[in-house]
């Protein structure tokens, strides 16, 4: 199998601060990673596509200056929520694509962000 | 990406088979049918995927209709650990989607002991 980790698993921060979430593929290299957000009792919403060595592609309605994505290596992508507000409280999930076929996609365990 | 339609919820008894349906009447020839499941407070977990032929793996079986407009995920013997939200997702290998998965509301499966 393939393992994707996220750190931290949960974080509580004050309004106005920035929070960085890491997504790592532990036993494979991932040229493409995805970031999702999930509000309570709702489905996952794709936020952005992260490609190693290039700028992320954001979905419509997602502010790229607020959700900074960096994919600096083949095993690590980071999502930074800048100037977080209570409405940014959510479950953030990343996924990593193994191989070039794009059919094998593995998800991280998620990060629960609570902004006070 | 083409849309899928799934029942909001289903119930099953433990150790009985479960058939989770998915309708995708607008599926295109390049769309793969993917199934993922999500346990509470966890990230989604890959279950199975297929294109035209039925597929089997250690977790489940995927039965695809001949016209590909519907499919069924089959859990042969449900356990309490199978209680989750099951997502049926279509994804094309072509075009601008580049592999991203678009999640619908899925089917919440409850398993009774």
Protein described:
The complex is a heterodimer of chains A (116) and B (113). Chain A is mostly beta strands and 116 residues long. Chain A contains no helices and 11 strands. In chain A, the strands form 2 sheets. In chain A, strands 2, 4, 5, 6, 9, 10 and 11 form a 7-stranded mixed beta sheet that branches. Chain A is globular. Chain B contains no helices and 9 strands.
Tell me briefly what this model is:
The complex is a heterodimer of chains A (116) and B (113). With 116 residues, chain A is mostly beta strands.
- What is the 3D form of chain A? globular
Cross-sheet strand order for the largest sheet of chain B? 1-9-8-3-4
Give the overall shape of chain B, derived from the CA principal axes.
Answer: globular
What is the first-to-last residue Cα distance of chain B? 37 Å
Name the average pLDDT of chain A.
92
Please tally the β strands of chain B and state the result.
Answer: 9
Largest interface: A-B, 26 and 23 residues
Mean pLDDT of chain B: 91
Class by alpha and beta content of chain A: mainly beta
Question: How much helicity do the residues of chain B have?
Answer: under 10%
Topology, number of strands of chain A: 11
- Cα gyration radius of chain A (Å): 13 Å
The percent range for strand residues of chain B is over 45%
Largest sheet of chain B: 5 strands, mixed
Low-confidence stretches of chain A: none
Strand and helix order of chain B: EEEEEEEEE
Instruction: State Rg of chain B.
Output: 14 Å
Helix content of chain A: under 10%
- Secondary structure class of chain B reads mainly beta
List keywords for this structure.
heterodimer; A: 116 residues; mainly beta; 7-stranded mixed sheet; 4-stranded antiparallel sheet; B: 113 residues; 5-stranded mixed sheet; 9 strands
């Amino acid at each position: 199998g393939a393992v994707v980790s996220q750190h931290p698993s949960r974080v509580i921060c004050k309004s106005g601060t920035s929070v960085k979430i890491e997504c790592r593929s532990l036993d494979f290299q991932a040229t493409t990673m995805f970031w999702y957000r999930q509000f309570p009792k709702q489905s996952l919403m794709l936020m952005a596509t992260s490609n190693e060595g290039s700028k992320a592609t954001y979905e419509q309605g997602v502010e790229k200056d607020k959700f900074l994505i960096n994919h600096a290596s083949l095993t690590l992508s980071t999502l930074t929520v800048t100037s977080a507000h209570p409405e940014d409280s959510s479950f953030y999930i990343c996924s990593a694509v193994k191989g070039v076929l794009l059919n094998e996609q593995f998800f991280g365990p998620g990060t629960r962000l609570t902004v006070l | 990406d083409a849309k899928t339609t799934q029942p909001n919820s289903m119930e099953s008894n433990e150790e009985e088979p479960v058939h989770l349906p998915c309708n995708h009447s607008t599926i295109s020839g390049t769309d793969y049918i993917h199934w993922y499941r999500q346990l509470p407070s966890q990230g989604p977990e890959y279950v199975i995927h297929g294109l035209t032929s039925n597929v089997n793996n250690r977790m489940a079986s995927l039965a695809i209709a001949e016209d590909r407009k519907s499919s069924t995920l089959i859990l042969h013997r449900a356990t309490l650990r199978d209680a989750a939200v099951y997502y049926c997702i279509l994804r094309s290998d072509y075009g601008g989607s580049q592999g991203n998965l678009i999640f619908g509301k899925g089917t919440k499966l409850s398993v009774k002991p």
